[in-house]
Amino acid sequence: MESSRKNRALHIDNEALSALTMLKDGLLAPATHLANKKKYDSIIKKNDNSGSTFPFPFILAPSGKSNEAVLTSAKSGEVLSLICEGHNIGTITVDDIYPIDKTERVRQIYGTDDPSHPGISDTYKRLGNYAISGDYTLTTTHIQEMLQMIQEAKQRINAQYTTALMLAVNPLHRAHERLIRQTLEKSDLVVIFLLKPYHNIGLDFEIRLEALQYFVDHFLPQNRVVIAPLENSYIFAGLNELTIDAIVAKNAGCNAFMVGQNHAGLGMYYDHNTNKSILDRLINIDIHVEIASIYVYCEECKTLVSTSTCPHGQHHHISYNSASILQLIELGLIPPAVLVRKEISALILSKLFPNRFRDLQSLYTNILPLSGLLENHSEEEFYKELIKLYQTTSLT
After folding, report:
1. Burial, 360: exposed, middle or buried (Cβ in 10 Å; 0-12, 13-18, 19+)?
2. To 5 degrees, how large is the angle CA 292–CA 293–CA 297?
3. Residue 250 phi/psi, 5° resolution?
4. How many CA atoms lie within 13 A of 241 on its CB side?
5. CA–CA distance from 294 to each of 238, 269, 310, 319 (Å)?
6. Residue 101 to residue 41: CA distance in whole angstroms
7. CB of 161 closer than 8 Å to CB of 44
8. pLDDT in tens, 107-156
9. Dihedral sign of CA atoms 235, 16, 167, 347 in order
10. Domain ranges in the chain?
11. Most buried of the four, 88, 173, 284, 310, by CB within 10 Å?
12. Could you give the CA distance from residue 31 to residue 58 in angstroms, rounded to a whole number?
């Protein structure tokens, strides 16, 4: 690798680095290289003869005046450094540089260029006017490490059938738990790709990871669930989200991919006078896609049920709306245990509101039953005990 002092540089952000890493390490195959102009046009015109599905050309088109100055003057064969947040993270050898239509590019990814659509405005801003193709090197290894972790987990239990889930668990609730258990019933191993966003909304990723790991460690069979953090970049968006989810799951070594009926990418679209599911676009991706039920809590059944099997109407159902549950948590309220397991609520609230109580030990002593021993108690323990009082029925 040439010294960064000799090379001119392209500056990219973490989202671009994430996408380049997944491409480099085979997680997005059949896309394996940055598209040159010929490949780009071929895919756009839908006459690419590779015989495999990838929903749009994979390109690198970084924004910014300095990047554009480099791209418009770079020569074929020139080695450019790749810089992310001030760090030299690799190089790219120029093969082809060509102009792109940014509006068309946004439509390729999202299926629309409506600026009110979530993510479109940010994606448009981070797109440059020129794309570059060529062989590149990267210093990052986290995708390789993730793939190795999944492979080792399969070997550990000799898993013959592995199913993937793509979850945000923001926050983890009872319907998530049921979905994971339902998936386990049909699989030797479940890989949960925990989505890590770049623009954090709701709970911090570390809190979501800790909560999910707690559930896996304490309430599921040992060695049968793997949590794989997955950076949720701009390519996992819009019309193509489900397709790329399935591609990633397949390339990570999974036999099946489980999605909920309310998955944003599982819509219907109109093509040549025929209603089709987005699943019809999964050409030559050898993975079985399963559609999971939608779960609610039924006040008549007194348990978690599937909407397809419960005989009672919607007016008896409590839905597992993540945004609404998150609103309770962010206000410092403990969600009902029918919505979120008390251990999970306690873990999250203790992280969100550290040192919340003026005198926790005194409060614990005054309102909760004690073993008789003088002990110090954590805020997490306090929430667990407090929710038990909410669940008493003799005085309610």
Report:
1. middle
2. 140
3. -60, -45
4. 18
5. 21, 21, 11, 9
6. 12
7. no
8. 888 888 888 777 888 888 999 999 999 999 999 999 999 999 999 999 99
9. negative
10. 9-138, 145-295, 354-396
11. 173
12. 7
Range among 43-57, 181-195, 365-379 rated most confident: 181-195
Prediction pTM value: 0.89
pLDDT digits (tens, 9 = 90+) for 371-384: 655 577 899 999 99
Single-letter code of the amino acid located at 351: K
Three-class secondary structure of residue 84 per DSSP = strand
Residue 50 is predicted with a pLDDT of 54
Task: Find out whether 339 and 297 touch, Cβ atoms under 8 Å.
Answer: yes
- Alpha-carbon distance of 178 to 150, in angstroms, equals 22
- Closest to 20 in 3D by CA, of 84, 109, 71, 101: 84
Query: CATH classification of 145-295, choosing from 3.40.50.620, 3.10.20.30, 3.40.50.2300, 2.40.50.140?
Result: 3.40.50.620
- Residue 135 has, within 13 A of its CA and on its CB side, a CA count of 2
Token pair for 79: 């080695």
- Whether 210 contacts 350, CB under 8 Å: no
CB contact at 8 A, 187 and 293: no
| Domain 9-138, architecture per CATH | Roll (3.10)
Average confidence (pLDDT) over 307-315: 90
Instruction: Calculate the average pLDDT of the chain.
Output: 88
Sign (positive or negative) of CA dihedral 202, 203, 208, 214: negative
Cis before 99? omega within 30: no
Highest-confidence segment of 52-56, 202-206, 274-278? 202-206
Query: Phi/psi at 324 (nearest 5 deg)?
Result: -70, -40
> How far, in whole angstroms, is CA 253 from its chain's centroid?
17
